[in-house]
Specification:
- There is one protein chain.
- This protein has about 400 residues and is of the alpha+beta class.
- The chain has helices at about 5-10, 40-45, 60-70, 75-80, 100-110, 120-130, 145-160, 175-190, 195-200, 240-245, and strands at about 200-210, 215-225, 225-230, 235, 250, 255-260, 265, 270-275, 280-285, 290, 300, 305-310, 310-315, 320, 340-350, 360-365, 370-375, 380-385, 395-400.
- It has a domain at about 5-160: Cathepsin B, Chain A, CATH 3.90.70.
- The strands form five sheets. Strands 3, 9, 14, 15, 16, 17, 18 and 19 form an eight-stranded mixed beta sheet that branches. A four-stranded antiparallel beta sheet has the order 2-1-8-5, covered by helices on one side. The protein has a three-stranded antiparallel beta sheet with strand order 10-12-11, with no helix packed on it.
- Keywords: Hydrolase, Protease, Thiol protease, Ubl conjugation pathway.
- InterPro entries: Papain-like_cys_pep_sf, Peptidase_C19_UCH, Ub_carboxyl-term_hydrolase, USP, USP_CS.
- GO terms for molecular function: cysteine-type deubiquitinase activity.
């Protein structure tokens, strides 16, 4: 029976999909279960020859280059896509879909080439332009938007589920939140099965409580990227931004919510929490906001109607604990024990300038062969001391879950 790439990757030990039902083969080494803190398997890293190659700017494509560098330095994604190449340059079992081929080509050039000249990701740009026309020209684009479009497009190419007929969610409103979250996740997985989904997709719980009758409405939605608020102040911590994201919000006036019990719109309290954390979580700092009447020193202008928050956001390099931001019962076993949810930084997309459409993007990525950080500015690459990262310009961050 012909296997898909996903099952092939799991059965060969290239990737341990969290939702896979394929039995894991016995291993002569525990190396697979001893991933480096930042998502790389030690024995696999020794097979790599590159990692510090730049990407050529093809005309305002720094937003794409910065995102691609971060994704190419995501060990779980890079290893499974380079796990077993055949004569076509693609992993065994994979049909040569356009974006999969283009990204695999970029990964091969980055990790298995001794070339020092910058690589031109022209094929990736061409494929993305066909699926998302806003990336067709040579105008500056938003890096976070490109990242989400890219991951979703790659997922759709690799999605094993081809029959996407409508299915009802088997949801019991009287069940506990964690049980309902699993039901919603099972429904999502019935339509979405790919290695990209397994690595990057998490689940958000939206809980709305009616202030009149106390009725609770819950929705559980998948997410590729977590967009969190940034305060208008000189500095703060990433944890403070996360706490602001999950803080209860009063819905009143035009934002009132329709209560199913009261059968009318009422004032409510809404709270967002994490009901499922992915292996790699993408955190997007919402630095661009509508400009108010006053401009503080932490802001810079972005056109006439927006401002960029230049707040210094102090983010951890390791042991970023997501448990305080989880919904009740999330990631708990049958005994009520919550498993560790510690994450380590693997990549940062930086934005410089006052405008998201006219600024410049770079990337800071962890390079596993040298066990150090590098700064990628299009074709220019240099070593970077982690403590010198620009926390005022960090825009998108990728954290990999620690497995040990």
């Amino acid at each position: 029976m012909e296997q898909t790439w996903y099952r092939e990757a799991v059965s060969q030990g290239w990737y341990e999909g969290p939702s896979s039902s394929v039995p894991q083969p016995a291993s002569t080494s525990e190396d697979w279960y001893q991933l480096r803190d930042r998502g790389w398997r030690r024995s696999y890293v020794t097979q790599l020859t590159g990692g510090t190659r730049g990407l050529a700017n093809m005309g305002n494509t720094c937003y794409m280059n910065a995102v691609l560098q971060c994704l190419m330095h995501c060990g779980m994604l890079a290893e499974v896509m380079l796990g077993s190449e055949d004569s076509t340059g693609l992993p065994v079992g994979i049909k040569p879909q356009p974006l999969t081929r283009a990204f695999t080509e970029a990964l091969v050039e980055h990790w298995r080439s001794s070339h020092e000249l910058a690589f031109r990701p022209q094929l990736i740009k061409s494929v993305m332009a066909r699926s998302a026309p806003q990336f067709a020209g040579f105008e500056q684009q938003d890096a976070q938007e490109f990242l989400v479009f890219f991951l979703d497009a790659l997922h759709e190419e690799l999605n094993e589920v081809k029959d996407k007929a409508y299915k009802e969610i088997q949801d019991d409103e009287n069940a506990q939140g964690a049980e309902r979250a699993r039901a919603w996740w099972a429904h999502y997985e019935s339509l979405n099965q790919s290695v990209v989904k397994d690595i990057f997709v998490g689940q958000l719980c939206s809980r709305v409580t009616c202030s009149r009758c106390g009725h609770v409405s819950m929705v559980f939605d998948p997410f590729w990227s977590l967009s969190i608020p940034v305060p208008d102040e000189a500095s703060c911590s990433l944890a403070a931004c996360m706490h602001a994201f999950i803080a209860p919000e009063n819905l009143s006036g035009e934002n009132r919510f329709f209560c199913g019990r009261c059968r009318t719109h009422t004032d409510c309290m809404k709270q967002m929490t994490l009901s499922r954390c992915p292996d790699v979580i993408v955190v997007h700092l919402k630095r661009f906001q509508t400009r108010g009447a006053s401009m503080q020193r932490t802001r810079s202008t972005r056109g006439s109607g927006f401002s960029k928050l230049a707040t210094v956001v102090n983010f951890p390099l390791s042991d970023f604990d997501l448990r305080p931001f989880c919904a009740q019962g999330a990631h708990e076993d049958t005994y009520g024990y919550q498993e560790p949810l510690l994450y380590n930084l693997i990549g940062v997309v930086n934005h410089y300038g006052a405008s998201g459409t006219h600024g410049h993007y770079t990337a800071d990525c962890f390079e596993p062969r040298s066990d150090q950080w590098f700064h990628y500015d299009d074709s220019s690459v240099r070593a970077l001391k982690a403590e010198t990262m620009d926390q005022r310009s960090a825009y998108v961050m990728l954290f990999a879950r620690a497995t040990a």
